[in-house]
Structure formats: C-alpha cells, structure tokens
Amino acid sequence: MPIIDFLERNASLYGDETALVEVNPEQKEPGKVTWKDYELIQPTSNQYYRREISWSVFNEKANRMANMLLARGIQKGNKVGILMMNCLEWLPIYFGILKTGAIAVPLNFRYSADEILYCADLAELDILVFGPEFIGRIESVEEKLGKNRVLIYVGNSCPTFAEDYNELVSFCSSKDPKIYISDDDFAAIYFSSGTTGFPKAILHRHRSLVHSCKVEQAHHGQTRDDCFLCIPPLYHTGAKMHWFGSLISGSRAVILKGTKAEYVFSTVSREHCTIVWLLVPWAQDILDALDSGKLRIEDYKLSQWRLMHIGAQPVPPSLIKHWKEYFPDHDYDTNYGLSESIGPGCVHLGVDHIYKVGAIGVPGYGWECKIVDKNDNPVKQGEAGELCVKGPGVMVEYYNDPKATAEVLKDGWLYTGDAAMQDKDGFIYLVDRIKDVIVSGGENLYPVQIEDFLRTNDKIHDVAVIGLPDKRLGEIAGAIIQLKEGVECTEEEINEFCMALPRYKRPKKVIFADVPRNPTGKIEKPLLRKKYGKEYLVAYENEEHYSEK
C-alpha cells in the first residue's frame, strides 16, 4: 500500500480527532493565517500561540492540493518542490503532491538562492511551492528559476512573480482524486547534506516511505495515546520519518517552532507530549538549563513524557548518563540512518539496551548490516570498517548521477561512508565519517572518540575535533571547544584534562569558538576545516606547527 493510504484511513476512522498542532512560542499574537478551517486557540496569559487541524481537515487539504496540481497538468513523474519552514501547511502539501502520483521534493530552508536554483534544476522541478521566508532568495533567481516552472506562494501578500496558493486551492475539490499509486512508484527526492559540494538528489519509492512507518512504530511502539513533539525541520528525512510513527498509529503530533529549552518543556507540559526526538545540542541546552537552575522540572507537567530519543549524529554517553540523572524513568533510544536509507532506523539501539549507550545499536526492523574493509572483506570483531546497510528503505539512485550511485550502491547494499565497529554482543559503534578520520603519523584518530571524552568536562558545552595540517605528522587533532555560558577555561586546563587520553589521541591544538551545526544537529566540519585549516597552513609558512606537543 502507498503511504497516502494511511492518511485516508486516519481521516475515515479518526476524522474529528486532532492530527497536527503548530506551536510558535515566539509569535505573540495570532495574526492573519492562510487557512480558513483550522481551530485557533487564543493566546493564554503568557501569549501561547497555537493552531491545529483534525485528520479529516488534513486529508481534505491534501486532496485540494492534489486536485489543484492535477488541474495544472501534474502527473506521475513530475516533480513538485517544497521550500517552507515548519508549519501546519507543510505535511498536507507534501501528501497532496503524493496523491497525484508526482514526486515530492523538499528543499533545505538554509539553501542560498544559488543552491535553490541548483537543486531545482537537478531534480527537474515542474513546480516550486515556497513560503514567505524565501521571497528574497526566490526573487533574486526568479528569472532563471521561473523560466520553465511554476512558482506557488503559501502565505499572505503574494509576490507578483508567483501564484497564490490560497486562491488556487480555494476552488478545488476536497475529495480524493483517486489516482492509482503502487508501492513501486517514485515518491520523493531528498537532498544529501552536501558536505562534499553541492547536494545530491536521493530518489525513493513509496515502499521506502511505507517501510519507514513500520520501522518507527516497531522501534518505539506508538499508540493512539501518544503525542510526538516534532522540532527538527520537516524537509529532512529524520523529522518526517519519526512523525510517520504518528501517521501509522493515528496519533497526535505537535510541530514546535523554536528550540529553546523552556519552549520544549512548556510544549511537552501543555500538549501532554509523550515522545520527543532531540538533537544533541538541544538536549545539552536542556541539561545546561537544569544544571544552572534556569529550568526546573517541578514547574512543568512532564510525567507523561515516556521516550527521549536522539539521532542524526553520534550521541555522547556522558550526555545520556546526565539525562538519566534528571529523568530516571525515561526510555531512551538512538537511531542511525541516512537520507539514502530513508532516514532513521536502519540501525537502532532499542529502549531495552540503554546499558549499551554509546552504541548506535543493532540492525533495525527489516534491515541487514555489515562492516567491510577497503577490499569489501568483512572486518574482524572490534576492528573499524565501512558500515553497509541493506533493506526495503534503500534509495533507488542518486537522481541524474549514475557515477555517484555506482559508488555507494553495490548488489543491493548501501555503502554509508561511515566507519563503524561491532562488539562481541553484535552492537555496532559509529566511529566516525570515513572522510573525517585523522591520519596522524600513520595512526588513525577517530574524532568522535576524542569528542566524547572532552564532553565529560563540566565546562564544555560542545566540541568538534578536526584534522589540522602538520609538516611532520601530516595531520594533528585540533579541538574546537564551545564553553558553557559564563564559564572560563584555558588551553592549559584542557591539555591537563586530556592527559587521561593516550598520548597520540590528545588534541595538539585547542581553539575556543562556537561549534556550528546544521538544522539536523550535525557538526559542520567542512566549514571548520575550511576556516581553521587555512589559518594553520599560513602558520606553517612561518614554521609554526604543533606536532611536538
């Protein structure tokens, strides 16, 4: 069955029940909105902005979008892009595209104008749907972007170069268009993070999306009594595929616009959220706020919160140990996945295996895993190699890029580019991205291991370890350290702290600076290497290098 059937089922069985809630703590007044038939809850004493739609309205909105697209000639094989911030409109528009048989193409809201144009051309978009935050970027490339495609605007005060979504759908039927769609039909194109240049377009079938629904519910046991708090961006596979657990169970979900610790606690309390997916920096922000007393658990209703899970990047064991000190009754899980494997879940820890914290886990529901060396031979237990995964959620291809596809898809296996090792109990540990491994004097240094150690320092809020050029050793480990707010620390203190590490693993250079992360929580190491690598190359010209430390 295609994924749109779950929405139809929910509208039929639970039509009057709440499907989606949007919460925006930073919007002080309700203001104008784009839909006529949502429920608006007036701000409370502390200006709590909220709107919601039921499963039946969700489905009707998707049907209107689908019928509008069909009237414009959209059919199977066409591509419709979505460039919008998280909002109540996002998922109904996404499902409206799927109901036509066309391919939904979510775009990263951080893309520059040139990246938007590049991705639109790469995916061969026929229509781009965009929100008010992107008017300037779209307008700057509109002459090229709109030359062969339709631009549709979702919001108030439609710009002259686009068509008004509200007007277009207002005359369309809210009935299901009844387009036949099979599991083998193409469903979506997602874009890679673009860490090695411009992003790649990742093509998936409906069967991949459906499998991600089953994986999420199998791992986290969502029921209709659950309420999922969605904070990460919906353009990314991680957030959406975790929400698929709500779709398959017919349960409520809350889209929170804002990541501050107090926003998370307030929304969990008010909306009675039971499941929260956090990224590492947000979880750390919560712990810092609790440690400092800025946030107090007793001020909120949190007893219903049953599961905290983290994905998108390696999770420091020290963070989870600290979390359990505040929330001893929380189930904890971590998921590993890639957009090429339709997001989270091809490897997962499992709530019963918290004693293995630090591992990414075992093969997920319906997935296989192997770890191989450069010659495709299985590595020995405890040795590092490249993690490969196989299952119903593997992508079809990198769209319009057969060379890149052939490099990562081999006999049904997806070669992830991540270095991993497996312990005697079969649990997999993510060592690092293969391209992030630092080769120093012939020794392989895995930055994640050094980062995990440094995060046990009470003064450190976040840290990234990268390779810096060195004349003698080739590379050395450099630690970019972001201290907790109001804390002072010296390089000498860090060097003393690192004496507990083997000598070859100790960072040879310490830099106190902010650690940049992308919207899905991954450290932007290419940016750090570009900035600090160039800086220290200049230093080498003056014979300043750090291999003697």
Describe it.
It is a single chain. With 549 residues, this protein is an alpha/beta fold. The chain has three domains: 4-258, Rossmann fold (3-Layer(aba) Sandwich), CATH 3.40.50.12780; 306-433, Roll (Luciferase, domain 3), CATH 2.30.38.10; 440-541, ANL, C-terminal domain (GMP Synthetase, Chain A, domain 3), CATH 3.30.300. It has 16 helices and 28 strands. The chain has a ten-stranded mixed β-sheet, with helices on both faces. Helix 8 packs across helix 9. The longest helix is centred in the N-terminal third of the chain and has 17 residues, at 55-71. It is globular and about 70 Å long. The termini are far apart. The model is unreliable at 30-46 and 538-549 (pLDDT under 50).
Describe the structure in brief:
The protein is α/β, with parallel strands linked by helices. The chain has 16 helices and 28 strands. Helix content is 30%, strand content 26%.
**Overall geometry:** globular
Radius of gyration: 24 Å
Instruction: Give a count of the beta strands, DSSP E runs of length 2 or more.
Output: 28
CATH class of the largest domain: Alpha Beta
Count of the separate structural domains? 3
Share of helix, binned: 25-40%
CATH topology of the largest domain: Rossmann fold
Give the count of helical stretches: 16
Strand order of the largest sheet: 2-3-1-12-11-13-14-15-16-17
* Uncertain residue segments: 30-46, 538-549
* CATH homologous superfamily (4th level) name of the largest domain: ANL, N-terminal domain
Q: What fraction of the residues are assigned to beta strands by DSSP? A: 25-35%
Question: What's the architecture of the largest domain, going by CATH?
Answer: 3-Layer(aba) Sandwich
Mean pLDDT: 88
Distance between the termini: 61 Å
Report on the biggest sheet. 10 strands, mixed
- Supply the helix-strand structural class: alpha/beta
